[in-house]
Design a protein that fits this description.
Length: 268
């Protein structure tokens, strides 16, 4: 007898969906170096209004830390970004490597102190392509990492890397999970104003053991499917409280190791 495949989970019809096919890229920094994303200046963040909206994520590491290709592909740029090709300004990314992958997905590795690749060169996933630095507009030594889709020269074609990168592991070797939140009006438009409070519980009947607070992406970056993403979350139960348009919305969800939890709130 032929089995009938179950329809895919629809986050508009259930409390939340958990998927495991989202993370297609290796992390560009590998242990024992710091492979965790800087939470203060995440994707779409303005660091509490102190910086421009962030089109990527940062891995803070000393200069000289190895940087690796996130997937197999072809290097299409390797050198200083003296011309304004990948950003509205020249010398913004400093020493930069750009790799093209399948399905018009591109990864960018910026502020490098050393580049080990040349344009036109094929690379394998996990191959060393350079070293962390602080060239260009970098504040401190770190890797700035971006994922772009379709038009690599479009500064606003970025995707949140935390929806693409394999989750890091905690000190016990257990993979973190990720949480993607979408807050929409009844027309399907992403809400531009909201406040998030997220509590992490090992026992839902007890007090939370950790709290997260945040805002949606900057307004000019709300052109995708989500308002915000929290990666590097421990597996467990989470209580999400969203305040928007004078309403308070609440949802309990589960985060699983190595998987993505998708949550959609529709504001009526």
């Amino acid at each position: 007898m032929t089995s009938i495949a179950e329809p895919p989970c629809d986050p508009f019809k259930v409390e939340f969906c958990i998927t495991e096919d989202h993370f297609l890229l290796q992390r560009p920094i590998q242990p024992p170096a710091n492979d965790l994303i800087d939470p203060f200046y995440g994707y779409g963040s303005t660091a509490n209004g102190t910086r421009d909206p962030h089109h990527g994520v940062e891995f803070s590491n000393p200069s000289g830390t190895p940087v690796y290709a996130a997937a197999e592909g072809t290097v299409i740029f390797a050198g200083p970004d003296d011309e304004a090709i990948y950003a509205p300004w020249g010398n913004f990314y400093g020493n930069l490597v750009v790799i093209e992958h399948q399905d018009q997905v591109f990864t960018l590795y910026a502020h490098l102190s050393r580049i080990d690749m040349q344009a036109g060169q094929n690379v394998s996933a996990g191959e060393k392509i350079g070293e962390v630095g602080r060239t260009g507009g970098a504040v401190g030594s770190h890797l700035h990492f971006e994922v772009r889709q379709d038009d690599v020269e479009d500064y606003f074609a970025t995707q949140n890397p935390e929806l693409w990168l394999l989750p890091a592991k905690d000190q016990n070797g257990i993979s973190f999970g990720a949480l993607m939140i979408s807050i929409m009006d009844e027309g399907g438009n992403l809400m531009k104003q909201a406040n998030f409070t997220i509590g992490y519980y090992t026992d839902p009947s007890a007090s939370p053991i950790k709290m997260y607070y945040g805002l949606p992406y900057s307004k000019d970056m709300l052109d995708g499917q989500e308002n915000a993403v929290w990666g590097e979350l421990s597996a467990g139960d989470y209580r999400i409280v969203v305040e928007t348009s004078g309403q308070m919305l609440e949802r309990w969800v589960e985060v699983e190791s190595g998987k993505l939890t998708q949550v959609v709130f529709v504001v009526k």
